[in-house]
Design a protein that fits this description.
2 copies of one chain form a homodimer. With about 350 residues, chain A is of the alpha/beta class. Helix content of chain A is about 40%, strand content about 15%. In chain A, the strands form 2 sheets. Chain A has a 6-stranded parallel β-sheet, with helices on both faces. The first copy, chain A, has a 6-stranded mixed β-sheet with strand order 7-6-8-9-10-12, sandwiched between helices. In chain A, α9 links the parallel β6 and β7. Chain A is elongated, with a radius of gyration of 26 Å. At the A-B interface, α4, α5, β2, α6 and α11 of A face α4, α5, β2, α6 and α11 of B. The first copy, chain A, binds a DNA duplex (30 and 30 nucleotides) through α2 and α4.
Chain lengths: ~350, ~350
Amino acid sequence: MANKVTLKQIAQEVGLSPSSVSLVLNNRPCRISEENRKLIKEVAARNHYVPNQIARSLVMRESRTLGLIVPNIESRFFASLAGSLEKRCREDGYALFITSSGGSADDDLELLRQLVTRGVDGVFLVVGDEFSDDRALREEVSHLPIPAVMVDRAIEGLECDKVMFDHEMGGYMATRYLIEQGHRRIACLVNARRSNTGRKRLAGYERALREVGLPIDARLEFESEYYIPSAYEASEAVLATDATAVFASSDNIALGLLKRLHEMGKSIPGDISVVSYDNSAADVLFEPALTAIEQDPGVLAEHAFGCMSKRLAGKGGRRAEEVVLEPVLIVKDSVLELTKHN
Amino acid sequence: MANKVTLKQIAQEVGLSPSSVSLVLNNRPCRISEENRKLIKEVAARNHYVPNQIARSLVMRESRTLGLIVPNIESRFFASLAGSLEKRCREDGYALFITSSGGSADDDLELLRQLVTRGVDGVFLVVGDEFSDDRALREEVSHLPIPAVMVDRAIEGLECDKVMFDHEMGGYMATRYLIEQGHRRIACLVNARRSNTGRKRLAGYERALREVGLPIDARLEFESEYYIPSAYEASEAVLATDATAVFASSDNIALGLLKRLHEMGKSIPGDISVVSYDNSAADVLFEPALTAIEQDPGVLAEHAFGCMSKRLAGKGGRRAEEVVLEPVLIVKDSVLELTKHN
DNA sequence: TCACCTTGATAAAACGTTTTAGCAAATATA
DNA sequence: TATATTTGCTAAAACGTTTTATCAAGGTGA
């Protein structure tokens, strides 16, 4: 392990002061002779000098580092979001600290503190979905010494930039599409108990039904966590209904459902139609390919970075910005068109 | 946005010196009266004082932060590795800087420099798989001022701690299993051109064939990148052979293959058997469930952290440690047992 | 009273940078 | 020649901590 070489050492070797070396290496406008400039650069290169960002951050009061907290990096959607966001950050010379919390507000808080204390210039937060006690987190976010952008979901009632897809609209679009295909008995399988996004998707589902005068039947609304096994468990009850279609509020939920369907020897869309959400597993082979509401994580990342960028530049008004993106319906093969029936 | 509160400010408010405050807040053995201790803690709490890690790192010369470079955080396997590793690091009070390079040696190098410069105490590297020009990277790694642990794969010939699964053994196990199930014409679809791991898996495949006296037939060895579309492209040629089974050297490759098979109306394992690799998509519904060589990312993470931990503690010998883990064959439904045939 | 300890606390240096004000020498201007 | 300007460079403060050596005051024992 080589030793780290410092400005001072370079200065020593060149026979000039640290100030001069710093000035030259940072291309600051200053009056150092051409020959000394060259010398400094050469010596720095020869010694593999790399400035110590820690020291630099301390004095510059910025680290050109941003932080991201996601509930679970192992989820495809968040991984993809993290990937896109990191790429985008790097384009602007920012490094991105990706962290994964496990989803509890306590962990979120802990991570947030870690990030702040490590001097990130701003944080992207994908938090506030689970209904754990988030008072401390809320408190912390509202007193943050750095800009924060909430992505994909939000802690309700917090004045903070937000970038997210319209989950209610997504639920509406999915259900509306099923209705248009002739379905009348439409079940849904959503994470409404523990997830704000799930609640909103459910609300969209109900709006679509109401809009065309279909009854909202509690017996058709089923609850599932965002994991495949949870949906798998919940699916049996779904299949016991007379529904001809199901709105599954996430890909994982759809996958759990599919698994169960498959085991029961039911076919999609022959026996039952399915609209899924996220479409983050789009390139994976599903049998059949899933019609789904798509939310492109890249778009989310782009807008989130945009907000952050403005804040960092000191632009961006006093009031929080709120970006709402429209999801897209991707039609594939999991929905059967019903010819007038029921 | 609240202002950051410093040690000095706390000291001011308490009416003591910064040294005293620091000493107390860090529970250093020192002689400060009980009442002042209490006072300091109270004031610090009231003001939400959080020590500035940047400043702290500068003087302590450690940041309790580690770095991770993966080729692609959007891949399930790496996401899972990153998740496990982060959890493990946090248990020991380390934060983990997760970065995703895109896979080129240049990007790896850039990220590595960023991490070092930002003062991480050590780095986990998942690099060296693609055959881009890695001389600069190699150079950098060998002169690193901090410990590095190469995970899952390695830059060949570099004296550095390594933790990885035995890829050759994996290839061998997969092929051996197919042979035991009665297959004789076994194709493989591997990323040997651009990936060391792919090469090793291929070597294992060949060893298994040799061992039982089966011919190594170049016409049965196919090349694919680690992406679904690449495998999808390559699959047509595979299916044009007389192979009764295919060893796919990653889940993504298997998925591309499946997609093609499906489109061609071929069934698995009826028409052709498949053994996949990673099993990282284990919980997803595949039709049928894939028999695969599994490498648990959690195990990888655990050992990698172990190595790092030793280095950080100054233990760990002069020589690099090399941990080789055995993958496991998970039998599911994608292989047909052939009764004496051919 | 003197010497010595103990207690409570602090001053100051250090970490590796950036940045600003200013100095000395060389050169230009009058 | 005297003055002003330019050129080349640096000293020193600052960032927010940690840590060590030291200090003053009060107490103890002889």
